[in-house]
Amino acid sequence: MTKTPDIDNGLFDEIHELIHVQLEGRATEKQRHRLETLVCEDSAARVMYVEYIRDSVNLHSTVAVDGGQRIDNCSDLLDLVKTAERTNSQIPPEAGSQIPPFRTSHRSWLAVAGAVVLLAVGSWGVFEWSSNATDPVAVARVRQTIYASWSRDGDDFVAKPGDTLLSGRYVLDAGLARIVFPWGTEVTLEAPAEIDLRADGSRMLVNGQLIAKVAPEDKGFTIDTPAVRVIDLGTEFGVLVAGDGESEVHVFHGEVETRQAAIDGDTPGNSLRLTARQATSFRVQDRVTQDVVFNPNRFSRAWQAASQITATDGAVHFMHPAPSSVVEAQTEANDVMLVFLERERVSLSDVTAVTITQPGLYTTFVDRAAWLPAGVEVDSYLVHFDPVGSDKLQSSVTAQGSVVFNRPVLAVITRGDQLALSDADCAGSNTQYLAPQKKYMDFYPRGLQGLVDSLAPYGPAGANDWIRLSQDRRTLSIKCTAGGETDQIRVLVSAQGEANAPPKLEAPSLAPSRPFHGQPFSIGQTIEAEDFDQGGPGVGYYDSTPNMLAVYYRPGESVELVRTEKDETVTTHVGRARTGEWLAYSLDVPDTGTYVVDVHVASSYGGGGFRIEFGESSKATKVVIPQTEGRNKFQTVTSTPVVLPAGQHVMRVIMEAHHSGDWVGNIDWLRIRPVVVSPK
Description:
Blueprint: H1 9-23, H2 29-41, H3 43-56, E1 63-64, E2 70-71, H4 74-88, H5 103-118, E3 138-152, E4 155-157, E5 164-166, E6 168-180, E7 186-197, E8 203-213, E9 222-224, E10 228-241, E11 247-260, E12 271-275, E13 279-282, E14 289-291, H6 300-306, E15 309-314, E16 316-318, E17 337-347, E18 352-354, E19 360-362, E20 370-372, E21 377-385, E22 397-405, E23 409-413, H7 416-426, E24 466-469, E25 475-482, E26 487-494, E27 521-522, E28 526-528, E29 541-542, E30 561-566, E31 569-574, E32 582-589, E33 593-602, E34 609-614, E35 619-624, E36 635-638, E37 642-644, E38 647-657, E39 666-674
Parallel strand pairs: 16-17, 27-32
Antiparallel strand pairs: 1-2, 3-4, 3-5, 3-6, 6-7, 7-8, 8-10, 9-10, 10-11, 11-12, 11-13, 13-14, 15-22, 17-21, 18-20, 19-24, 21-26, 22-25, 23-26, 24-25, 28-39, 29-32, 30-31, 32-38, 33-36, 33-37, 33-39, 34-35, 34-38
């Protein structure tokens, strides 16, 4: 409901509250009289009343009013009010009466308007209004359930997203349930919980806990408990009710008014206003209130669901409300990657540079760029890793985890420059971000480095950062390694839900690799290490010395290839491999099963090693290179077993550890074979 300029803020808030309690059927006689007086004597108040209905619910039903006239929608209702005002202004008041001439008709259309709200038909479905208060009416709709098990009025109840909830008492025994009310307010219940959704529009949380995310149009939304009534003043809040009725109210954003419940028919108790990050406990019998510590973690599962995050795993932890700052050294933890919702329903104001738009495994980021077109509507999330002492140059620490969204991921931003550029649209208004800057060369401290050379002046040894976006675009797996800086990743998720397909991009991400010989390698086939996939750096391979180009066999590629001659035989192998580099090989697996990889390797020192990953299966196996009789004296070692599903995979050999001579070792060939199971 929009405030008109001729109504001051205090009167606007009063009318809003009076309209709300009147339409919910819980107004006192004094409140009804006050609303009637305001509406009768102030034309702006009359328009507010009708526009409240028109703007809040999309009506397509028809209702009969006094005299048999029918109303097709709220615009007709507004016309009816204006007509009634004109007609009744011609009727003189009774002698001695101070009642304004519009009041008689106002009683009629005021009642009609209240009925119209309960007859709304549109995206909500049918709301059947009845004068019998015991008849069930539609009061809400299910938006999402997560492992929910619940009942209604003692009977087992099953609901799927989109189903209407009738008035009644609901018990949620397990899981979570997100429900939405007619004016857009969303409530998430976390089991075990019991809530009474009444036909008059009121709601009583009998026990358990919920969070409420109140829509701007629904200011004044209320939740009752045995101890307190919570009245929204434009906010997000959580409520917990114990078995004895004692209730806690925690405010996340905005402000609420609390009114202690009446005892044994007595008048309600004192009112109290709570603002963001405040919490208070209310007792039933003695009306004692007590400040308690604001604890958002008690509602973290519900807020995670309300933020449309299905699950987190490993080091990734959801946070609500968002942190006040994501500048270095403000949220330090070595084993936690925070993920939080920055902004909802952002319409990108311009073509937006992003790093990743396609499913797959990504270990390099600096040279990646794609674009989302202007106007795409997204929800923006930030993953934030801030190790202890991140404002100083120090040894690196690593964290790994995943986050699952219930809608498609459209793009991921991992480059510091792209993060800075997208802040204007996507950064949260209540969070402080690091100002755009270059720390050195092309490295921005907010973004990810990717795999790095162990000899780089500032880079840590070993595999650094990588990201995997699943084929269904729901799961983002992340590994972050950070020392004297923070790692940040912005995730842009479809704000349109399941039906929103990824938009056509201005430019694609790097293409997938292609088999070197035109077709994937097969099980049992010898894979020469130098026959890595085509596609170039960042696709078929990653090499930390891009200026050292091969001059034979694969000229122009920067992978170090070593050629040896013995007994008039010339052989080629991959040599001088450094930690963080990788090679990709396309592979066809005919049958699901357990496999090992035989690898022909050599090392004068021993102790180097690598892991072998298989595409989107997230399967990996490890190989340690032993000390051989020399760098060209090869021997065969066998990896640990790995279970592979049937199908085509991209096998990546990722260098993880170097020996004392600063190299991983030399690799001649690989061969994948099934594990032979010995008969019992």
